[in-house]
Amino acid sequence: xxxxxxxxxxxxxxxxxxxxxxxxxxxxxxxxxxxxxxxxxxxxxxxxxxxxxxxxxxxxxxxxxxxxxxxxxxxxxxxxxxxxxxxxxxxxxxxxxxxxxxxxxxxxxxxxxxxxxxxxxxxxxxxxxxxxxxxxxxxxxxxxxxxxxxxxxxxxxxxxxxxxxxxxxxxxxxxxxxxxxxxxxxxxxxxxxxxxxxxxxxxxxxxxxxxxxxxxxxxxxxxxxxxxxx
Length: 230
What we know:
- By secondary structure, this protein is mainly α.
- It has 13 helices and no strands.
- The chain has one domain (about 5-210).
């Protein structure tokens, strides 16, 4: 089994797009930038070096996280999600995790099992370590504590919708992100009472999109014509 085939199987995970390309109207490498930022904050076990030099180890941690994410998705009550535009997107993502995720995860494990001994060991050792160390629980706690983790996690989940051009601007993405933030009544009340915190969060969202190279353009929107240099 070649590493190339392994990486191809790894790409099939809906929630991981480190090596994706050919995305319409956006920079091809923005997903990798977001993943690396997310990894540093959300799951310190995932490093840039592992992603580039030891992808088997990297995807071992990713696979362990996804396996736990699937279990959590099964417990979500879809009927309690608001029937709004962003609620529809959220339900679609949860259903995809429930229905498509297990098959893709099994395929990745099967391919990893066919790798040469050393990379196979790297994959499954990372997988087991991630579960034993409680990486998922600690990572989910980071979603409460870290705005950066929240923003990156949201952007990664939105990749299929960005590809499908359901969002034509960063502002549209930001509105959905803030609506999800306000699903929690306490969080909604806090942000309403602290406009400075809300503005800082919104600016952080825009900064991450800008720094990591996410640029969106609506269908049919003409390219901006810059004035000629004097």
